């Protein structure tokens, strides 16, 4: 397991982070998981708005760099400028379960998230492990405040489930981040002399964290490797020189990585057996800073651990069987077998991934794992079977992987080995004709999607590449109107949000049933959304003041699950076009519908003379 911490000081990402992650070395082949903790990621309002639409640039960078090495983003959590990313090799995904995240604000008395902690906890081969990334208060005299904040984080963060409800209840805890501990007593001249003379051991006994580990009960049991690298704070940005400003801050090891193994329980365990000693062992193979990165006033710190479990779960919850090669569409048959005790859901699905995919929602195609005899197969331990439609299969040659995504656990419960797909490419002429035909039928209607909470990914086939820094300024003369449903959604980084919608959106044929201006009420919509099927999607189209509804049998109701709730719904209009239509309606004494939220009834066709707002 590799752990990295870096206070990036609101800087833009560097071009290359391979040395930071210890890639292109012999160590990479042995690393199974990577946890990356960032602090002070730019969280100004304009950056947060952009990150709400697209994945933040730091997360994009790490996914881009790690995916060629078969690392998949398992989980991520963000609290303002504090981000935690956890990656793992794709073949470990079925054995990473019970994934949960939490965050605790400690800035401004707990109301501001510039300081605090974010965590990802999960079961790794049946053992509970927690990664905790913290940014604690700064300055030499705030040592007691750092202790109180850390104790608050440990107390506040609680997880669901029968085991490991608190952070320290986990079998193994990695605690890292900008912990902001300083060097006491010694003046800056002696500290710099010890650094230049490479006698760092003379500074260790005055390090506040080393002192606290021996005196603070809350830190009892936490371990750290020797600090054989220079203090990582504070540098002049763009250089390897310590602070030369008027403040001349004293160098300090503010960026740290520690771990704690849960002590074995006393007495007798289940079955009357005394628990074995040494169930879990951790060895630190590397603990170093990276002076080559100068974009921040902090230097990043990395550590590599060898973790040895006494036992491990080595059978996945879902086993998937597939042919070695798909050369014909009729070969795209998937058989799968679920383990006893697996909590199957009707919203589970099987994704087809290209080798080198970035996260569980980064699939090429999918098929619902809904089999008529699914429950019988689960009870009798039989194989269920589904098939990919021909139009859903990728054309050309390539290596792919199948993964069973469990909606209950929000994780991949089974994967296959890579296999080959070799299907002939379709004629480009027909695709271009289809594209032009569909675009000619488009209108300027407003599309609002009303649906239950999304169970998986978002409509359509997504592009694989896009700029890490999308700029809205290039769309001159456009109005961006987010739907009110998305205004309150989480602004945490979402890997699903990075990909743009497809250019060729299938034409949706609407039923001809016309409803009056007040024919659909919010109560009726609420009843429809809460129907037993749970998969009804309604489309409200504002067209000449009328409303139309799409039934559950339409193609919209069967939309790709890449999740209709993760991508903001936007309406793009030319300014002249939008204003022209508004002026035309005003001249006629008619005011267009205005929907305050996707679930509220429209207020249409009234003029100010009637006592209503337009």
Automatic annotation (TrEMBL):
- Please name one Pfam family that this protein belongs to: SKICH
User: Is ATP-binding included in the keywords of this UniProt record?
Assistant: no
The broad enzyme category this protein falls into is hydrolase
Its Gene Ontology cellular component terms are: cytoplasm; plasma membrane; ruffle
Catalysed reactions listed for this entry = a 1,2-diacyl-sn-glycero-3-phospho-(1D-myo-inositol-4,5-bisphosphate) + H2O = a 1,2-diacyl-sn-glycero-3-phospho-(1D-myo-inositol 4-phosphate) + phosphate; 1D-myo-inositol 1,4,5-trisphosphate + H2O = 1D-myo-inositol 1,4-bisphosphate + phosphate; 1D-myo-inositol 1,3,4,5-tetrakisphosphate + H2O = 1D-myo-inositol 1,3,4-trisphosphate + phosphate
What are the recorded GO MF terms, alphabetically?
inositol-polyphosphate 5-phosphatase activity; phosphatidylinositol-3,4,5-trisphosphate 5-phosphatase activity; phosphatidylinositol-4,5-bisphosphate 5-phosphatase activity; SH3 domain binding
**EC annotation?**
3.1.3.36, 3.1.3.56
Biased segments, Low complexity type: 429-439
**Region called Disordered, residue ranges:** 422-505, 590-614
Gene Ontology BP annotations: phosphatidylinositol dephosphorylation
Residue ranges annotated for the Inositol polyphosphate-related phosphatase domain, each copy included:
1-314
In terms of InterPro entries, this protein maps to: Endo/exonu/phosph_ase_sf (IPR036691), IP5 (IPR046985), IPPc (IPR000300), SKICH (IPR041611)
Main localization is: cytoplasm
Keywords carried by this UniProt record: Cytoplasm, Hydrolase, Methylation, Phosphoprotein, Repeat, SH3-binding
**Gene3D superfamilies xrefs:** 2.60.40.2840, Endonuclease/exonuclease/phosphatase
Which family does the entry's similarity section mention?
Belongs to the inositol 1,4,5-trisphosphate 5-phosphatase type II family.
Instruction: Tell me, in a sentence or two, what this protein's role is.
Output: Inositol 5-phosphatase, which converts inositol 1,4,5-trisphosphate to inositol 1,4-bisphosphate. Also converts phosphatidylinositol 4,5-bisphosphate to phosphatidylinositol 4-phosphate and inositol 1,3,4,5-tetrakisphosphate to inositol 1,3,4-trisphosphate in vitro. May be involved in modulation of the function of inositol and phosphatidylinositol polyphosphate-binding proteins that are present at membranes ruffles.
**What name appears for this protein in its UniProt entry?**
Phosphatidylinositol 4,5-bisphosphate 5-phosphatase A
Q: What is the species of this protein?
A: Melanocharis versteri
Supply the source organism's classification: Eukaryota, Metazoa, Chordata, Craniata, Vertebrata
What gene does this protein come from?
Inpp5j
